[in-house]
Amino acid sequence: MTKSSASAQLTLIFQPCNDSIPEDEQKVKAQEFLSSLLGMENLLVLAGSGTSLTFNKEGENYVAPSMWDLWNACEESLDDFEEVKELTNYDSIQIKKDKHGESIADIELLLSLVDQYLLFEHDETTHTLLDTFKKSAIDKIFECTNFVQRKSEQLLAEQWSSHQQFVNKLGLRKIKQSRLKIFTTNYDMAFEQAASNEGFIVIDGFDFGQPQRFNPMWYEYDIVRRADHQGQNGSYLENVIHLYKLHGSCDWRRRNGEVIKTITSSTKGEKVIIYPSSNKYKSSYDSPYLDMISSFTQALKQSNTALICVGYGFNDEHLNNAITMALRTNTSLHLLAVSPSMFERNDKKEDADVNKHPSFKMLHQLVSKNQSKRVGLLAATFNDFVDLIPAHGNQNPDLKALKDQMATLLQGAKND
């Protein structure tokens, strides 16, 4: 699947959608709402796989895979794929069909069925087949999603533009505001690399030793400039963000009961990712996932907080529940949900996303009934959304110097 270069029409509503409003006015409304979010004390981002799809180019093989691409990759590389589909009765259980009556491809459903059969399958041969398939599928998913390292030489500067602008525009916060907190369900390292390209420091829960070990207490610390010997006071360091990888990361491994960060080519230790399956809810109660999700739910409870959901498909019920509960209980929480298909219509002339996701339905209801001015719904791609974000404050001279130095070092490394 390739990314379309066409821009989605921008549509931000705070009351029943009015298609007669010109696009320019919609953009003004969107930027006004975004400006109010950026001015809040706490700024949170929940980013899903849609943000990574911006690396794909129309007409070319994908760089960042969609769920459809993951299905195709497993189907093409795993010899027992069709046999496992038959063993798990996938075609009978998959109620979603295409216009030809064929079962819709859903790698998460297939792996969920495999997990269920492994619990009750007593035939040793069949159990071994399913277990081997599961491990091979997870390895293939890991390989495909690890595109930042695997295809680093192929990625052009323009493909990093959206992520880098996103970090820049949202990451530079005022002294009295808390650090930007990015929560992502992605395994890939796009946000880490973009932050590094822009000279930002990422606090991700790992210490600074070798190997780097995970300890959630690091989120409680901050980085500042120390007072110098001439008596000048210490000061706030602007270019620092917090990153929480809710489903794990390509560069995490579990060794001897500890989660460490390592080079992605390392095969030593267990991969620390929540693979797409209904079991992901159970896995989320293990560390480090529980630490990350607890931080998310706690952040949603803070007063004067803005949450931007972008590229997130609202397919994770434990995260959806945290958001909907926070909207009910935290009256100062503001939410902007961004999706290119936010207001798409199906054959019944209803909102497609409303039919798919109860959380989207609840958000639409809040807006359409005019019960909440705290919720904004925006139809836009990640690229369009980034262009829409207003610049927030002037760039610090020290940060600019650091960015220039980083750019020089990166260019030198490429030339070598």
Walk me through this protein's architecture.
There is one protein chain. The chain is of the alpha/beta class. Helices cover 40% and strands 14% of the residues. It contains 16 helices and 14 strands. The protein has helices at residues 23-38, 67-77, 81-87, 90-93, 107-120, 124-145, 147-150, 161-171, 190-197, 280-283, 289-300, 317-329, 352-356, 358-368, 382-388, 397-415; strands spanning 12-13, 42-47, 181-184, 201-203, 212-213, 224-225, 235-236, 240-245, 248-255, 258-261, 270-273, 305-310, 333-338, 375-378. The strands form three sheets. The protein has an eight-stranded mixed sheet, sandwiched between helices. β12, α12 and β13 form a beta-alpha-beta unit. The longest helix has 22 residues, at 124-145. It is globular and about 70 Å long.
